[in-house]
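Contributing new complexes? Match this layout with adenosine-5'-diphosphate.
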Amino acid sequence: MTDPHDLVDKVVAELPEWLPAQRWFGGKDRPVTSVRPLRTSVLRAEEPVLVHLVVEVEQPPDRREPYQLLITDHVENYDATTVPELTGALLDLIADDAEAEGLVFAHEPDVELQTGLRGRPITSEQSNTSIVFGSQYILKLFRKLTYGENPDLVLHRALHRVGCEHIAQPLGSITGRLDGQITTIGMLQQFMPDAVDGWAMATTSVRDLMAEADLHADEVGGDFAGEAHRLGQAVASVHADLERALGNRPADAEDIDRTVRAMVSRLDEVVADVPELRPYVPALREAFEQARDTPEAIVAQHIHGDLHLGQVLRTVHGWLLIDFEGEPGSPIAQRTELRSPLRDVAGMLRSFDYAAHQLLVGQPEDHQLAVRALEWSRRNRAAFTEGYAEAAAESVGDPREHGHLLRAFELDKAVYEVAYEHANRPEWLTVPLSSIARITGEGAVQS
Ligand SMILES: Nc1ncnc2c1ncn2[C@@H]1O[C@H](COP(=O)(O)OP(=O)(O)O)[C@@H](O)[C@H]1O
Ligand SMILES: O=P(O)(O)O[C@H]1O[C@H](CO)[C@@H](O[C@H]2O[C@H](CO)[C@@H](O)[C@H](O)[C@H]2O)[C@H](O)[C@H]1O
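Output block (do not edit by hand):
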């Protein structure tokens, strides 16, 4: 019979080696120097044991971040998120509004949940771990914890309150105290079994175009422009709902100044780690400075914060936006502040560029493919922006009227992506680098 506390000691000792191999681990750029348990909740003491564990991971020179783990003696790698019988217990606890060992499980008001379902982890590579129950529910366990309420839950609740049509309904949550603060550990939502994510749809469309040597993007069967247009409308509608639910304020010169300084400071940080970015620094700085030149009034409000094609789902009823957590690699203070909705527009524009150019990784010589990629990207970026502008006419307005700011947001996102790819998928580093080269006109980089 395993003692749960012995299990914790054993697992914690193995974590410095195990963590860096996990897709969701956000600190792959540095070694793990120590791991110490912050809080332990024994959810099941008899075999198979189930323990919820929050550990603090230390990395040089002074990074200390909390991560959550669900562990068991039942499987060799101790990861209980892979054991359907054990994760099923989490849903039952949420349905019962239970409190267990300092963790609070709660369903949203007026929600009644079905119990006794087995949980299966989704297999896609993500920043967190999500578990699906039957065809009804999906539970996201936030891996790197942010002290306090997670913006994903806060924004989903706010959007649901105003009847937003482009989100999956929030159904429940798991919270616990961390350093005295009530901290979101998990979020339960309605699962969309018929959904396809935007990334899968877009890359299929790019492949269709690349396979057709003689046809243009508007002539091939898999043309995505209609979807891109509808997606633009959906994003504008979510921005309007966020504004209705949580308000906005006019952005002034001070906001723009802070924004520009944050972009420059992120650039400095990233270039210190990724020397490949160095040749573009002067052009990037210049583009960021140009963002100060905003002819029209702009607003600051709550936004999605990490919008890309993998964060949107196409269901039979239309597009849904998921994962309102913001950029997992950015500080929480930045992720929760009121910001320009144009950042989300820029994030999605980057993603169209990614979908087209990621297929060129490892084929730098193929000029024909590069031309096709650019054609696809231009067509779909334009359709998305047009859709957004139409639906945002009464609110944010047409993004194209803020050309310099939009370009700066795109480049800032690409700098973030350089850091992200460097830490997670080094073979893809050329994707954001070649975009930076294209947008700034600073020569080509091999894709
Ligand atoms: N409500 C939902 N219905 C169907 N699939 C979903 C839903 N929410 C998330 N997913 C799937 O789970 C994946 C991970 O969700 P996401 O919220 O993006 O997690 P992460 O924070 O780990 O990136 C998504 O890419 C999508 O495929
Ligand atoms: O979805 P996450 O919250 O985990 O976001 C992170 O991972 C994304 C990759 O999965 C990353 O997105 C980048 O790659 C996408 C293609 O895989 C592309 O569509 C995006 O435009 C690009 O930014 C995201 O930046 C990161 O925060």
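Reviewers usually confirm one structural detail per submission. For this one: The chain has a mean pLDDT of 93.
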